[in-house]
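INFO batch 0412 | record 1 of 1 | parsing
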Amino acid sequence: MLYCFSQAQYGCDELVDLLACVTENDAVVLWQDGVLLAVKYLQYFACCKGQCFILETDTSARNLTALLPKENPIQLISLMDLVDITEQYFPQIAL
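INFO prediction complete | emitting tokens
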């Protein structure tokens, strides 16, 4: 399954509950305002069982690249990478 986070208004408990559903066969994509979650709650994504991705264009547009640690558990991806990921993981859920 592909979990797509496009908003940043998740509380700690809600985000922990959502990420607890993610298995090693799943992926998480942060895009649009969802990229702010990588700055606010990076530690939760570090513990996520699935692969975590963050859209590079949205990260750059919000000037967040410098705020992400060098050893980031969330992989920066391009729009082309996003297309490949959406083909690979299904079903998809937009959060």
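INFO post-check: The chain has a mean pLDDT of 93.
INFO record closed
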